[in-house]
Write a structure and sequence with these properties.
Distance between the termini: 72 Å
Number of strands: 5
Radius of gyration: 22 Å
Strand content: 25-35%
Largest sheet: 5 strands, antiparallel
Order of helices and strands: HEEEEE
Structural class: alpha+beta
Length: about 110
Amino acid sequence: MEQFFPLILLVLAFGLLIVLPARQRKKLQAKAEALQSSLTVGTPVMLTSGIHGTVASLGEGTVGLEVAPGVVITVARPAVMEIRQPASGAVPPEGATGTIDGDGNPTDRTR
């Protein structure tokens, strides 16, 4: 029995290296699917490339993203990384005059 202990230990280690990453990948995929299904027009989002914008339209596999007033780009749905929430209770810096473009979009930063 002692001669099989290293082999059993090796099989267990190999099993853990396969099973744990697969479970993590499954959780991430479920989270991404939930995010995709929760997208609605007007939702502020950030893409995997770091581009911030507001959802202007939704297609089967695409999202129309307004990145500036009147500028809409079309991206693949999986490119949406997260839904952005406006900072609650954030204190604007001294001398701030408002949003950059004045449209009141929650993804705009103050000056």
